[in-house]
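User: Run a structure prediction on this.
Assistant: Running it now.
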Amino acid sequence: MMEKLYLVARIADTRVALRSRAIHSVVAVGIPVEVPGAPPHVAGLFALRSRVFTLIDPHVVIGLAAVPVAPGQRVIVVEVAEHGYALLADEIEDVCFIEAPETRITGKLLPGWARVADAVIEYDGASLLVVDPSNFISLPTLIAA
């Protein structure tokens, strides 16, 4: 039953579903500490319960401009390869069971979304992209022309 539990959120102004097994928690973040020389999608570091988390800006990962972090903004905390990360979210909508099956993406997505989306699922009369948080952690290597 837990495989049908999802966190529904708005990331980069797009409604997405994240499988609950990938989510550690949802928390409010303070002002993150900047990391000089970090990749552009790293919005900073913050501490939570004696752990340091890397704050990721999904906007940058999908090819949009970075967004400022607002104190108190809610983030989605995940663990990838035993490291703590948090994804900036525009809005956390719900945690819910979705009975509809995940289906293959058949439409054309913007390249950034194509990199992070695994599937599509129907929920509440809308199609949501099913995204894997680990796909937001590393930026693709750009090839020089």
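The helical segments are 58-61, 111-116.
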